Amino acid sequence: MASIEGKPVTVAGPAATSDLWTLAPYPVIVADASGIVVQANRAAAALMTGAAAGASLRESVPDWLARAHGEAVAHSRPPAQRSGSHDGEALPPASGPVGARRFEAYPTRGQDGEVVWWLIDGTGRQEAEQALSTERERTGFLVEASNVLLASLNLDRCMAATVRLAADYLADVAIVVAPPARGKLPVAHAVAGQDVVRTLVAADPSSLPGLSEALQGFPPLPSRWIDGALLPDWLLPEGSSGPIGSVVVTSLPGHGVPAGALILLRGTGHAPFSPSEEVFARLFAARAGAALSAARMYSEQRAITQTLMQDLLPPRLQRLNGVEFAGGYRPAETGERVGGDFYDVHPGPSGADASLVVLGDVCGKGLDAAVLTGKIRSTLQALTPMVDDHGRILELLNGSLLNSHHTRFATMVLASVLRKGHEVRLSLTSAGHPPPLVVRLDGSVEEVRTHGSLIGALPSIESHSAQTVLQPGETCLLYTDGFTEARGGPLGSELFGEDRLKRALSDCADLPAEAVVERIQMLASQWLHDGSHDDMALVAIGAPRTTHLSAVDGRTRGRYTV
Amino acid sequence: MTPTESRADPLAALRDDLWAAVTGRDEYQAADLVLGALDGGADAESVLLDVLAPLQAKVGAEWAANRLNVAQEHAASAITERVIGALAHHPATRTEPRLGRITVACVDQEWHALPARLLAEVLALRGWQVDFLGAQVPTPHLIAHLHASGSDAVALSSSLPTRLPAAHAAITGCQAIGVPVIVGGAAFGPDGRNARLLGANAWAPDARAAALALSAGLPGPDLAAGRQQIDDLPHLADQEYTLVARAQRDIVRKVLTQLEAALPAMASYTAEQRERTAEDIAHIVEFLAAALYCDDDELFAAFLTWTADILAARRVPARSLRPALDALASELKDFPRSVRMLDRAGRALDAYAPDGTPPGAPA
Fold this sequence. Notes:
heterodimer, A: alpha+beta, Beta-Lactamase, Phosphatase 2c, domain 1, 3 domains, six-stranded antiparallel beta sheet, 25% strand, B: alpha/beta, Methyltransferase, Methionine Synthase (B12-binding Domains), Chain A, domain 1, Rossmann fold, five-stranded parallel beta sheet, 6% strand, methionine synthase activity (chain B), metal ion binding (chain B), cobalt (chain B), cobalamin binding (chain B), Cobalamin-bd_sf (chain B)
């Protein structure tokens, strides 16, 4: 368009050596103080038809140049009161469009108050600057989008973040539709500048062309343009009242996992999507899709883990048939919630029957050990009716473990617990496990003398039970060796040991069972500081201190020991 | 509003009766008192915050003054806990969740769960869906819970300043996944300055203020900016915290050796007494590490004057702390911030008067 060659040329004056500028490839115009063109070179004449000697600038060049000329003249001939020389001062340049291109015009002073305008085509540079700033903005946006989208593994939050980003940068209204969950479509809407709205809609995705395919993640489809009038009502957010101009439906690529669809709406007042904006929207959709599918996979995996984990988590203990029970558990690995230690309390068929308490330790830690604790726990639950015969329970369990494919063995303590009057009667059997401890009202601590073989290693086992009675305020503590073998202390490398455990328990005379558990756990945790440790489990069995026996079946107790 | 809100008297009587029941270890009586008050129309939130919270504060104060022993303190907390459980089942406290979802948790290794429990109950009463994760929640558990639950905000409680580094990890962890954090508890200082330092989105001095701040809405963390943990605490660049925290056990051992050389009386200590002394030194080093983490001289000085109070209540002179501080200062002489803090705390200790705040120590 700016081609100069081959165009008719208007040359004013002879082409002397000093007038070589007339051949320059850049448009040059000389105009006098009254705005009349004195001379224009070939390039100028080619660019602006009519820009020839004698023509008025006002009629032959774009307004911005004519106006700049006027200012340059005023600048060159200052009012009389302006003192001093101004010849050295550069005149201010101007710029503006000529036809479809953009020029920069630099003025210099000619003779007799003339101004010479040197024009440079800046179209390319300006386009490059424009493109650069657009790219910078987009890169900034994509970095921001990545930061925001990668932050959460929560599906709702990811959907909200996606529509908020899209509504702020790409469209007037952004909608994400996620693949259906239980027959309904999770939808997130964002209208620019408003809060995100999340809803569950029972709607048919095929009511919007391309939506079903996008939700299935297959077959791959390019972004689809649809007529705003085709947009089903359930997709229209409540806050957007304006008429819809352009609508584009883009599938969110989930890399094998359906991630949903992104729908962008622009009002009639807003320019429709340009091809480069569409490419950009796809770049954004790729990031959003990756984040959404990661969140979806995480939530699915988490749901599976939760379900499988449910029976492996230590149970929450509470008062049962007039006996206080409290348990505490700390797995070896900080990030884990289960490990190789376990405990359970199985109530007898009626309040007059003994409950079976079990606390044990499967060799090893982590999930593998936890899986075996699950088997042992359910086996023991089934054996609860034999609560009066610990030897038989252990034999059956031993047989069952030997017959399983697990090669791990376990140690444990069984306790049959029955309240009689104010007392709690205990029958305890250790199977290769540290002996239970009892703290008496006077603070003395006794080891319960029971011992036996560990379980799951040898075809035949033996065990010796022991009996004890708890008076009100006394507590029996079952624990795993994670406590006694906790290494730490103020100097960092000492074992917590049985003596320290006994001393700690001695301070727990006459405490409620959960306070005993809390105190021992706290001391062990302080002992460990932040050091590594084995799984740690403990169960406290307490004879309630209260003398309010009348309340046992009364209204009060039932209300808060649910 | 119930009449109990305008007149403080019924609650004052309840407070006194409940104190007697809790220290008398009569949990049935304690539960009856609280449930009776609710039956009588008392406002559940007032019972939680104007009866049970002060009760718990009194338990702490009585322990500090050596009028309750540790076991009694545990027993009182256990009973209070059960009473809160009973209260939560009373029909008067049933509130349908209509607001958003809040996760309430204690910082890792923080055992004092009651303040957080009270907040959880208050938020539930006010109509929030509350996930109460309890005491000492490891940060990975908290984060996993937030990913799964999509909570709108986290309320994080910490009473021990030594848990501030862990609190910082938890705060930045939550914020990094886009969940704003409100913090509370004594660890953050009476004016919440450590909450600001660690970049919490809000701080509340008590449960009512926390509930108010949550209902006003917390500003969400700016994920786009990609904030780094170290940006909050540029002073960590000197690595003093890291070195002191990592070498903690070594430092304790060396200080103990120094003390044994300096104090002939220690030669006759039993193994248990020696261990107690080592624990005390370890405690001092832990607080020093926390003060280094926050670059907060006052945190360390306040801990020492508090320790002096506790010792005074047990008839141990505050000056017995001085040799340990001096030994620590000579062990850490190459660490300028540690030396500064030890010096400041030493001066506060020298000026300590058992019946009041030491002169020169700002409140």
